[in-house]
Amino acid sequence: MKLADVAKTVNGTIETGADIEITAMASLLEARDGDISFLANQKYNKQMQETKASAVLVAKDYEGTTDAVLIRVDDPNKAFASLAPIFGPKPVVRTPGIHATAVIGENVTLGKDLYIGPFTVIEDGVSIGDGTIIEGQVFIAQEVKIGAKCHLYPQVNIRESCILGDRVILHAGVKVGSDGYGYTVEVGPQGPNIAKVPQVGIVEIGNDVEIGSNTCIDRARFGRTRIGDCTKIDNLVQIGHNVQIAPFVGIIAQAGIAGSAKIESGAIIWSQAGISGHLTVHERAQVGPQSGVKEDVPEGEYVIGAPAMTKRAFAESLLMPRAIDKLKKKIADLEAKVKALTTNP
After folding, report:
1. Is the distance from CB of 75 to CB of 57 less than 8 angstroms?
2. Distance (Å, rounded) from C-alpha 277 to C-alpha 241?
3. Coil, helix or strand for 129?
4. CA-CA 20 to 30 A from 148: which of 73, 243, 301, 338?
């Protein structure tokens, strides 16, 4: 594709190189001749001096220098993403149909234009909406309801009676509706007895939700564990029973949310953060990476650390050892002066 056509596609402007042939996309450091790249963050500006890309998408006010031809656009990140359908791998297209090895139970309601892959099991009473794609080796238990245009990747498991909205994407290995963690301990004549607390609720997932590989969402002890519309969940996340997640929430890899916690709209839980049970992370709040939250997080606040605290308090705690060292030195100096005055008044 000629660079002039690329520039037209992204509503950008170029000064030279209109006839350069662009064949692929790449990062600044990995790019080779014929590749196009982008610069969206100035901290990577040094890489502009090293890149072998033929062209780079930059902001309209970019003032740096490079050997690559510059395409000036309003938003380099967005413009680069818009080129993915042209230069990236072509998406796999599933022709509607049911594979011969799929197992379909009784009283199953199947919408139009479905794809059901090999060795998938769909139990009795399941309902699946139009245009949904279910890849191979998926297990869908009794009475599950799945909306339209969903995409379930291999080895997804959905337990009985759970509900998925429309356009839900579940990546490989997602488990929806496993039993929540609940036990009682009684001490009897024969010693302690650990009894399982029945988990009789379900999981309800809203519209336009995407959930990353190997994430687990526990069914409610009673009622519903809820995931709100347009929430995006990364890989390897654990969501406990009866958790309530509002629409437009982001949860990053390896985070864990304990039972009955509430995450309000616009909140972001960063990687490896842990949220204790029965707490609320209020609207637009953020929990930083590896933080441990033991109390409610106020609206719009950013907390970090273990236990989690505000960014200001966290920064002060980092400075505390240096302040203590300075204080020790001052005390030592004062002690020396006092000793000198006592010895030689």
Report:
1. no
2. 10
3. coil
4. 243
Instruction: Identify any residues that bridge with 188 across adjacent strands, giving them in sequence order.
Output: 191
Query: Does the pLDDT value for residue 188 go beyond 90?
Result: no
User: Which DSSP string do the residues of 183-244 spell out, in sequence order?
Assistant: EEEEEETTEEEEEEPP---EEEE-TT-EE-TT-EEEPPSSSEEEE-TT-EE-TT-EE-TT-E
For the sheet containing 250-251, what is the strand order?
97-98, 115-116, 133-134, 151-152, 169-170, 210-211, 232-233, 250-251, 268-269, 286-287, 302-304, 309-310
- The mean predicted confidence, pLDDT, of the chain is 93
User: Helix (H, G, I), strand (E, B), or coil: what is residue 283?
Assistant: coil
At 343 the pLDDT is 78
What positions carry a catalytic annotation?
241
CA–CA distance, 174 with 56 (Å, rounded to integer): 37
C-alpha R_g of the chain: 28
CB 165 within 8 A of CB 179: no
Alpha-carbon gap, residue 9 to 230, rounded angstroms = 28
List CB contacts of 326: < 8 A, sequence separation 6 or more.
Answer: none
Q: Is residue 323's pLDDT more than 90?
A: no
Straight-line distance from the first to the last Cα atom of the chain, in angstroms, rounded to the nearest whole number: 89
Question: DSSP for 131-166?
Answer: T-EE-TT-EE-TT-EE-TT-EE-TT-EE-TT-EE-T
Beta pairing class for 250-251 and 268-269 = parallel
Q: What are the CA-CA distances from residue 154 to residues 46, 72, 148, 158, 288 (Å)?
A: 41, 41, 18, 12, 31
Tell the residue number behind the tokens 């291999």, with chain if given.
154
pLDDT at site 334: 84
- Cross-sheet strand order for the sheet of 145-146: 109-110, 127-128, 145-146, 163-164, 202-205, 224-227, 244-245, 262-263, 280-281
Which residues partner with 55 through β-bridges? Answer: 36, 69
Q: What does pTM read for this prediction?
A: 0.83
